[in-house]
């Protein structure tokens, strides 16, 4: 099936008629083509967005909210169709797409549709000077949203919803690897009555279509989620034009397990935080540090549980681990397993490709646990972004804190302990934008979301996102 760009409320082929193959990761087949949009396509999207902006930015909050809630509701009604498309495009188990990806896409619109009606700005009375200051929070204009392939509609809408709620018009580009549900969103927006040109979705490679968005002098803000190297390139390109930037980048998150934790809950959650979505979530806990006294027990129990995970076709209800997103990504992940072996790591389970009858060319890999003897090895430092975790023991709180922080990333961390004082100490000192204690990936959409160090700049979520997508203007009135 071929997909098209969604510009000014209509569907269009790319101007230069360039197309990219779209692969089904479950069997390696090409099952459609997507536009590789050029500068002119992006310019058309820009013209549509620019002319929609005066009306959209003046639309009442009640009306904006009503349309966003309608989009949310339509996503919910089309759950099965969207989940099926997401699973085929990405390789993730359909059960996951149904339980997490699509419901969250719906929540993103519902959340920001409601949040905008509660968004407020400040006023400052300059006492003794007979003056009052108030802050206007005005939409920026035309903004760009660029998202990755791991949680396609989930992350796409996480950017678009607040941008629209705040009154901006949007040019959005999903990952070229997983464009399908973003394409389907166009129809949903039309059905919900979103005025034409308010949201424009262009498809294509990062280096052509993405590049045209970030280079466009009049797209004044870019919200990006993806790899750290791409984030650095975007920052370099956008800085001389003084664009506002929100960058959500990679992670190499520590999962720190103390002996005093609730063991069974920790064990079950650790299986999930290691391998959910084939380990392709920037928040996965890919470095597991276990207190020495329970290390051998944990190692045995964890490996036993991981071996029970069923690698299978994404459409089967019994599948725990589906296909990796693409052939190049599978090769990258496999290469890291080789690196681990060359570095002296011990593969405790997994490590091999899996062949599934009838789907022999799919990109399947066993969930892999690697025991490492030093936290400084490459597999413990570099983002693998696949079903591969490392484990190693630690003796003291200080030691594990040092190891946890000794990476270039700082996105999230998980702590397992029932010691309150330790929780407070560790949470204060861990270099990460999010610390989960005795849980993982529990999300409240009001909270700030993002990372420090090489994991990014800025925060999404709640009012932080609405602040990002607005320009604060101070008005000072003397009376
Ligand atoms: O991401 P890219 P890739 C990590 C993960 C993965 C690595 C590379 O480690 O292995 O990044 O993945 C668009 N101008 N994460 O190469 O290239 C691109 O088209 C503008 C972590 O797939 O960063 C896509 O829409 N846009 C991450 C988006 O950027 C450009 C999730 C992300 O793709 C562009 C995904 C350019 N010059 C990968 N080049 C997370 N934080 O969750 C690319 N793009």
TrEMBL record:
The active site is at 248. Keywords: NAD, Oxidoreductase. It comes from the Bacteria. GO terms for molecular function: oxidoreductase activity, acting on the aldehyde or oxo group of donors, NAD or NADP as acceptor. The keyword NAD applies. CDD domains: ALDH_F8_HMSADH. This is 2-hydroxymuconic semialdehyde dehydrogenase. It comes from Hanstruepera neustonica. Residues 19-475 form the Aldehyde dehydrogenase domain.
